């Protein structure tokens, strides 16, 4: 479960490339010009030409240097930031991403994750109803506006948590699934450990400020990816723009759903202590990036900075496909099979991330124990492909049998064994 997190931790010291650190920032900086003053009707006298040279506008590089720096990637206004390409486990941006921070409403992603898990396992249904307690009804902050004593479907509660960021909806789900919010919070922390989120502790289901409740930008990125990967049919709720409940229509607080192409989630958050934060995921041409930021000073700053960083990630880096899903990496010898060799294929694409315009040729080594004894079923894991990247990182991908190889009949096996023992020394 924690393989992605382990890979990410190994990558935090890697700067993707010097070009990534110098991305243009001109589109981000604003200049507030004062309104023009009213002029008199008389024609102004011509002023003598000045010989003083006006100061030139700061360059893009100067603007980049003016932003608080990151350990990996470009500077950012965020206090904590983490961007990863989850398909290659490449960290593009890292700024204090392991530093404890308040999760705020981004904690709701774990409450939603656990609800998705119960639905996927068949233990919970979208039309299951949970009763609203007084504790849920009295929650402050952003709300779904559930009514005391009413029964609300799980699907409505999911939309209430995602689209409306309802703290009351979180309490209803927590009490419905675990009896009390305290026991549900313990379950949230246990799931965090299972997913490899080692810097996270939950104290409630909504992210409401509480002593001892912490997370990290990296951990929230892990949670984001696992939600997308594990629940593809349910993840769609994160992309809904508006929703109406109890005759009250509210917009999704994730502004990037409307402004940044390919954005399909996830969750915003805000507390006085932690500032404004957001976990965002966008996909373009099959490539997905996940970004987590925190510590912004306003909703507007959060939206603008998150959009800038996401555009930078797609613009300044690209993925190169080494093998497509189903491609043969190597053929392995077969012992006592109807075929002499079996193709070993990768079940999913093997990709590498590199700065845009850079040509990368990785080294690939197939590892398996051979010859492989028949019978062999297609899809059986038989080895690994170790891909060495230009920065000397090694990433391993599973190798599976690309075809069924039946075992030889008795006569065929005897013949093959005789040939092996009599003539094997010639090979």
If you had to describe this structure to a student in words, what would you say it looks like?
The chain has 427 residues and is α+β, with helices and mostly antiparallel strands. The protein has two domains: 80-316, 3-Layer(aba) Sandwich (Beta-lactamase); 324-426, D-Ala-D-Ala carboxypeptidase, C-terminal domain (Peptidoglycan synthesis regulatory factor (PBP3), Domain 2). It is built from eleven helices and 17 strands. It has helices at residues 3-11, 60-66, 108-120, 134-137, 154-162, 167-178, 181-195, 217-230, 256-259, 299-316, 410-423, and strands at 80-85, 90-95, 129-131, 151-153, 242-245, 248-251, 263-271, 275-284, 287-296, 317-323, 328-335, 341-345, 350-355, 363-368, 372-373, 381-388, 394-401. The protein has a six-stranded mixed beta sheet, with no helix packed on it. A five-stranded antiparallel beta sheet has the order 2-1-9-8-7, with helices on both faces. The chain has a two-stranded antiparallel sheet with strand order 3-4. Helix 3 packs antiparallel against helix 5, helix 3 (108-120) runs parallel beside helix 8 (217-230) and helix 6 crosses helix 7 (181-195). The chain is globular. The protein starts with a helix and ends with a helix. 40% of the residues are buried. Residues 10-55 have low confidence and may be disordered.
């Amino acid at each position: 479960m924690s393989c992605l997190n382990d890979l990410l931790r190994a990558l935090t010291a890697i700067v993707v490339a010097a070009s990534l650190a110098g991305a243009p920032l001109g589109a981000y900086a604003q200049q507030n010009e004062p309104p023009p003053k009213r002029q008199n009707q008389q024609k102004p006298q011509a002023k003598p030409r000045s010989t003083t040279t006006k100061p030139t506008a700061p360059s893009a590089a100067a603007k980049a240097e003016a932003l608080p720096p990151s350990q990996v990637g470009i500077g950012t206004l965020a206090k904590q930031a983490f961007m990863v390409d989850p398909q290659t486990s490449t960290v593009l941006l890292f700024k204090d991403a392991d530093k404890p921070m308040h999760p705020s409403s981004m904690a709701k992603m774990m409450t939603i994750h656990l609800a998705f898990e119960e639905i996927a396992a068949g233990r919970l249904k979208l039309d299951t109803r949970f009763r609203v307690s007084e504790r849920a009804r009295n929650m402050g902050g952003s709300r779904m506006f559930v009514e005391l004593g009413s029964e609300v479907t799980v699907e409505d509660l999911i939309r209430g948590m995602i689209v409306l960021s309802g703290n009351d909806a979180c309490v209803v789900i927590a009490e419905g699934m675990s009896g009390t919010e305290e026991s549900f919070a313990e379950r949230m922390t246990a799931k965090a450990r299972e997913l490899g989120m080692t810097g996270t502790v939950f104290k409630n289901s909504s992210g409401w400020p509480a002593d001892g409740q912490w997370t990290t930008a990296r951990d929230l990125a892990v949670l984001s990816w696992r939600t997308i990967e594990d629940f593809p049919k349910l993840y769609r709720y994160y992309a809904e723009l508006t929703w109406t409940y109890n005759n009250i229509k509210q917009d999704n607080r994730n502004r990037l759903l409307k402004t940044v192409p390919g954005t399909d989630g996830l969750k915003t958050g805000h507390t006085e202590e932690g500032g404004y934060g957001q976990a965002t995921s966008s996909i373009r041409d099959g490539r997905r990036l996940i970004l987590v930021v925190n510590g912004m000073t306003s909703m507007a700053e959060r939206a603008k900075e998150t959009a800038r960083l996401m555009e930078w990630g797609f613009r300044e880096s690209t993925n190169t496909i080494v093998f497509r899903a189903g491609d043969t990496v190597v053929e392995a010898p077969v012992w006592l099979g109807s075929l002499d060799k079996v193709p070993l294929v990768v079940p999913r694409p093997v990709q590498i991330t590199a700065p845009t315009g850079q040509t990368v040729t990785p080294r690939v080594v197939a590892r398996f124990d051979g010859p492989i004894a028949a019978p062999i079923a297609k899809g059986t894991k038989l080895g690994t492909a170790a891909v060495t990247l230009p920065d000397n990182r090694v990433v391993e991908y599973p190798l599976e049998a690309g075809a069924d190889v039946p075992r030889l009949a008795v006569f065929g096996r005897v013949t093959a064994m005789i040939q092996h023992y009599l003539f094997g020394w010639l090979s």
